[in-house]
Amino acid sequence: MSMQDLNHPYDFDLSKHGWIEASAGTGKTFTIERLVVRAIVEEKIPISSILTVTFTEKATGELKDRIRGLLQNIVDGSLAEGDRQWFEEQQRKHGEQEASKTFAFVKESLDRFDEAAIFTIHGFCQSLLTEYSFELGRLLKYELVNDNDLLETLIPDALRRLPVSESHLLERLVRSEFWKVTHSGEPRLENTVRNLLRMLKGNVEPRLSSASEDSPMQIVLRMVRSIQDNLTRLKAERGWISYDDMILHVRDALCPTTDRFKDQATDRATDQKKDPDTSRKLASAIGERFRFAIIDEFQDTDALQWDIFSACFLDSGRHVSRTSDRKSDDRSPRLILVGDPKQSIYGFRGADLNAYFRAKKRFVALTEKGEAHLYRINRNFRSSPEYIQALNAIFQSEGYPWNVASGDNDLAYVLKDCPTGNRWEGTELPQGRRPMNLWRPENADGAAAIRLAHARHICNEIRFLTAGGHELCKDGKRLPVSYGDICILARSKKEATGILGHLRAAGIPASFYKQAGVFESVEALEILYVLEGLAEPARSSAVQKALLTRFFGISIELIQAMDELPVDHPFRERLQRWHELAGENRWPQLFREMMTVDELFALVHADAGGWERSLTNYEQIFHALEERALRNGLDLIGIVRQLKELIREGSLEEEETLHKQETEEQRVRVMTIHASKGLEFPIVFIYGGLTEGTNIDFFRFYEEEHPVIVPVPWFDPDKKELDRSESGLRYKELHKSFARAENARLYYVALTRAAVMCYIPTYRPNRNAGPVGTFLQDALDEAMKLSPNVFAEVRDQHQTIASISRSPIDGQSTAQLPEPVLPAHLQERKADLLSYSSIVRQRAERIDREELDHDASASEVILETSDVDVQPTSLDTIFRGAEAGNFFHEILERLDFQDDAFREEQPSDSLFSEDVYPSLSTRNRSLIRRKLDQYGYRTDSDHEGPVVLLLHRLMRTQILPGFRLCDLKPADRIHEMEFVFRYSENVAGIRGERFFTGFIDLVFRHEGRIYLLDWKTNRLPAYDRPHLDEAMRSHQYDLQYSLYARALSGWLESRGHDPVAELGGMIYLFLRGVRPGASDGIFFETASLEEVSRKLAREIGA
């Protein structure tokens, strides 16, 4: 059945169920918010009775803000033209009295907006469990837990109980022919078990063989079932419930029939024995409660969620009118499903595209009966007409595997229309660039060399775009291309991390969007559980969760018998000991003891693949907590609250971080394609994806519209007469077809993030080709023939950076050297990560802890407030202390050194005005004013003038013979260069392996030599050499630059350069004293590596 084009939300028929396919960039959220407001205005449905379900917490927040804003515009009379016409028409349809009632109802909806039912699927199910707890047969009070946290204890516990040793089992697996044809590399049983548990959720058929009872498969299968049983029992006994349990409980209460592939563990987990009548009554009650339901991102749903929505809004016994004339007493619920099957990319999270198509078949049937409409939104409002032409050429090509992606279902790409107005009208692309730009590697052999060449190309192209006077024109506003206009999309986090390292090494400001931080790790949750157990020792569930962590390593049986253990049992004594330390706020001792317990070391070290990462996470979290506790005087309750906040912030969908990056500084955004869904950028680079690995843990595919998994190395029991290798090859081909379909959708998402330009690598590897190296190349070859005017091949014609300063080791950032290797005995030796500031703190504990982390340190403030007779300038009186240091550092990190204004004659302090620097670039002026505002200074000439004057002097002063900073090109400098290096075991009298970390303010190249430079904002009595020498000595800056020189020489040496010959020296610029034509404020020391080594050996034993 054909679909109607939905050109505007006001064309949607509210009287029927609705199916909306909204392609990328077509204004899906715009449509949803207007459908909600229409239900309020046209049908007087209360805001609390309109259900909207979307995919993420970030999306729910955005939707709430936009719907509230639209209602506010109605009340204020400030609607946009199209919305105003609709509202006025609605008011004219009825009499004046009815119009007044409508306006009052809108205002009431706005006043009661906190009742709006806008949820994620988990939030929706949680609200049902609360509101209908009796009908659902659930506890009124329960505690939310994460299944993965519990499995971290249950899986190792089950492995220890295997009837055969893990090594013996793995030997038997590796010997099988099936393994050899399906897998490369060594198997890890724990990962296989963990993935199997994850993938057996939902409506998935586990296809396992019926081999002998002592076969490896049966042993693992019994262990998986045992883990599922223990997980279910543990949660039931403790009153715990996970988010996934919520969905299962609700679905089973509404749909009591058992699925074809529903496993026994799920049956036990839900244990709902509802009869059909009870379920229908519950569904009817929910349908009456929510008379209007919109389900967003429906392509990312699964069979369980579809069961819930269909039961409540399609099968609850009420049917919508088959005409468009709805009677006021017609209270039948309406269901609107909004999605795009081409953007279904979350299969690894359980999204089931076949559930989407089953739902569509149901809506087709409803449409045939006159109870629903099928709509398609086909206008792309995001991109320029030329870029839309390029997308159409790619996605309509026969080379793009939509047929593989959709199978028998309708997933054809429909050519996108352009709206009447072009948001990007006036944008002129740089010379030689087109909407779709293809890059081919030249003289690069091998995957690693190609990745490196591609990374260099991206860095060079970003410099070309941001430094060449190129502009974007959006909605009539013309602005220069900035870093914030650019996004780099990678297929995996590993690839994203690799390109991020290259960007940082090239001095290009960049950030990793949605990077999983240390506070998102299992280790953070384990520490939280222990601290909560210490904070609430009388709450048994809190103590039990603490005991389940690796800090105790207690089996389930022992936890169940915990109440019977004597008070002198080691675990009870440990809890009591830690409780006392926490009660006395002895955080360093508590965290040190937690890090050195035998159980933690044994369990973490048993994870051969991730023990270093786990221990590093523990150390970083403890360090962060200790620092905050000491700085803020936190007690145990306070530190628990602080950790919860850190975890919450670390697991957000990055909306707050993203907002700060957009409003405070411009950075290139690096992210995975999965993380980019729903976002848009003017310019996008596609990185990686040319090759892919060959390891397969599970074969995944669909049969008869149901998802099937075959855990490697098992085979299909229905085909056991075949040779195992034949069966393995068959499953591998089915899996490859499934993966190809997912990749087709993934790169549709990637290419539709751009609005104006996109860059794609074009190359066909000889082996292990990835999606970019296979079907995307086929599609591009065909598309270039269809629309050659919107494609261009881009070559590296503007390489300005020598490999010495811009060529990090492949996949690693220059600023991120290899992680430390943990010593064999954790109890005796522990790796510490120290910095210059931490060493100084150990020598001068009387100095304020926090301020020493900044260049404008506490000792610098002491110098500022001394009795020396100094004539203060406006700069000295306004910009003082540590905040001033941070302020100037952030400006200098982002300043355009080559601004023409820095080459003009220097004015006096009193002459500063808007007219003195007429050519000061918009970029620099905006940067200065933004930072003034951010740090609480005024943005008038009294505060802006001294800053511009200081920068003017700084840029024009010769800091080396014949060299000024305003002559330093971006390609020859790196700001905030991060480093880590190892040094000896005896530092400041503390034993243990040590690593030094820090940031060098500026590393630059001049006449073939490399220099390090540090900015200082100290106010000194004078800035001649004797006073500079005294400042360097009193603040131990000589130790600082020695450490920096050691790190920089190691960096050069690791890249095949001679640090003795190429390291030029160390420069410290005291900003307040620098003047053109004089040497004041400039401290320079030549780089004698022998002297550096002697100083470090003498001072810290390095």
TrEMBL record:
<comment type="function">
    <text>A helicase/nuclease that prepares dsDNA breaks (DSB) for recombinational DNA repair. Binds to DSBs and unwinds DNA via a highly rapid and processive ATP-dependent bidirectional helicase activity. Unwinds dsDNA until it encounters a Chi (crossover hotspot instigator) sequence from the 3' direction. Cuts ssDNA a few nucleotides 3' to the Chi site. The properties and activities of the enzyme are changed at Chi. The Chi-altered holoenzyme produces a long 3'-ssDNA overhang and facilitates RecA-binding to the ssDNA for homologous DNA recombination and repair.</text>
</comment>
<dbReference type="GO" id="GO:0003677">
    <property type="term" value="F:DNA binding"/>
</dbReference>
<keyword id="KW-0269">Exonuclease</keyword>
<dbReference type="GO" id="GO:0005829">
    <property type="term" value="C:cytosol"/>
</dbReference>
<comment type="similarity">
    <text>Belongs to the helicase family. UvrD subfamily.</text>
</comment>
<feature type="binding site">
    <location>
        <position position="1001"/>
    </location>
    <ligand>
        <name>Mg(2+)</name>
    </ligand>
</feature>
<keyword id="KW-0479">Metal-binding</keyword>
<keyword id="KW-0238">DNA-binding</keyword>
<comment type="subunit">
    <text>Heterotrimer of RecB, RecC and RecD. All subunits contribute to DNA-binding. Interacts with RecA.</text>
</comment>
<dbReference type="InterPro" id="IPR000212">
    <property type="entry name" value="DNA_helicase_UvrD/REP"/>
</dbReference>
<dbReference type="Pfam" id="PF12705">
    <property type="entry name" value="PDDEXK_1"/>
</dbReference>
<dbReference type="InterPro" id="IPR011335">
    <property type="entry name" value="Restrct_endonuc-II-like"/>
</dbReference>
<feature type="domain" description="UvrD-like helicase C-terminal">
    <location>
        <begin position="402"/>
        <end position="678"/>
    </location>
</feature>
<dbReference type="InterPro" id="IPR011604">
    <property type="entry name" value="PDDEXK-like_dom_sf"/>
</dbReference>
<dbReference type="GO" id="GO:0000724">
    <property type="term" value="P:double-strand break repair via homologous recombination"/>
</dbReference>
<dbReference type="InterPro" id="IPR014016">
    <property type="entry name" value="UvrD-like_ATP-bd"/>
</dbReference>
<feature type="domain" description="UvrD-like helicase ATP-binding">
    <location>
        <begin position="1"/>
        <end position="384"/>
    </location>
</feature>
<dbReference type="InterPro" id="IPR014017">
    <property type="entry name" value="DNA_helicase_UvrD-like_C"/>
</dbReference>
<feature type="region of interest" description="DNA-binding and helicase activity, interacts with RecC">
    <location>
        <begin position="1"/>
        <end position="798"/>
    </location>
</feature>
<feature type="region of interest" description="Nuclease activity, interacts with RecD and RecA">
    <location>
        <begin position="830"/>
        <end position="1102"/>
    </location>
</feature>
<keyword id="KW-0413">Isomerase</keyword>
<feature type="binding site">
    <location>
        <begin position="22"/>
        <end position="29"/>
    </location>
    <ligand>
        <name>ATP</name>
    </ligand>
</feature>
<dbReference type="GO" id="GO:0016887">
    <property type="term" value="F:ATP hydrolysis activity"/>
</dbReference>
<keyword id="KW-0234">DNA repair</keyword>
<dbReference type="GO" id="GO:0005524">
    <property type="term" value="F:ATP binding"/>
</dbReference>
<keyword id="KW-0378">Hydrolase</keyword>
<keyword id="KW-0547">Nucleotide-binding</keyword>
<keyword id="KW-0460">Magnesium</keyword>
<keyword id="KW-0540">Nuclease</keyword>
<dbReference type="Pfam" id="PF13361">
    <property type="entry name" value="UvrD_C"/>
</dbReference>
<dbReference type="GO" id="GO:0009338">
    <property type="term" value="C:exodeoxyribonuclease V complex"/>
</dbReference>
<dbReference type="InterPro" id="IPR038726">
    <property type="entry name" value="PDDEXK_AddAB-type"/>
</dbReference>
<keyword id="KW-0067">ATP-binding</keyword>
<feature type="binding site">
    <location>
        <position position="1014"/>
    </location>
    <ligand>
        <name>Mg(2+)</name>
    </ligand>
</feature>
<keyword id="KW-0347">Helicase</keyword>
<protein>
    <recommendedName>
        <fullName>RecBCD enzyme subunit RecB</fullName>
        <ecNumber>3.1.11.5</ecNumber>
        <ecNumber>5.6.2.4</ecNumber>
    </recommendedName>
</protein>
<dbReference type="GO" id="GO:0000287">
    <property type="term" value="F:magnesium ion binding"/>
</dbReference>
<keyword id="KW-0227">DNA damage</keyword>
<feature type="binding site">
    <location>
        <position position="889"/>
    </location>
    <ligand>
        <name>Mg(2+)</name>
    </ligand>
</feature>
<dbReference type="InterPro" id="IPR004586">
    <property type="entry name" value="RecB"/>
</dbReference>
<dbReference type="Pfam" id="PF00580">
    <property type="entry name" value="UvrD-helicase"/>
</dbReference>
<feature type="active site" description="For nuclease activity">
    <location>
        <position position="1014"/>
    </location>
</feature>
